[in-house]
Amino acid sequence: MSDDTTVDDVRRALDAADGTTPEEALPHLREAAERLTELIDAALADAVLSGGASLRSAGVQAGLSENAVGPRLARTRQLGAYADDRGRVTAAGVERAKYDRESGTPRPAPERAAPMRFKPRRPTG
Predict the structure, then answer these.
(1) pTM flag (> 0.85)
(2) Over the chain (125 residues), what is each successive 10-residue block's mean pLDDT?
(3) What letter does residue 81 receive in the DSSP assignment?
(4) Selection from 99, 32, 37 nearest residue 68 by Cα
């Protein structure tokens, strides 16, 4: 799974939200959702790299369409370097990643972009 995020990180964010007002809970719930998404994406990458799952079957297991899997794999440390110019990892990219891993020459992971955040145009008061 992800080197950076653990299930305990998700639990801590959920625990921080527990017992607070809905407004106070929102940032903690957003953090939990982002961390859970990272874990799901890393598990998708591990599943297809292990050879135990195709892009389609991994997506089905995660409740995603096949078209949603490629962009999510492109965000992972395991497969981000194998994304095409559209920002998607295809079956060919997974096969190349498997070959590179077996030969001991995996591509270095790309820099991870920070998640997009909403920025209000005007201050709210």
Answers:
(1) no
(2) 78 97 97 96 96 92 94 95 95 95 85 64 69
(3) G
(4) 37
Domains of the chain, residue spans: 7-103
SS (H, E, C) 2-46: CCCCCHHHHHHHHHHHCCCCHHHHHHHHHHHHHHHHHHHHHHHHH
Tell me the two tokens of residue 120: 């209000």
Give the C-alpha separation, 96 to 31, whole Å.
33
Nearest of 38, 53, 49, 52 to residue 114 by alpha carbon? 38
| CA nearest neighbour of 63 among 43, 81, 79 | 43
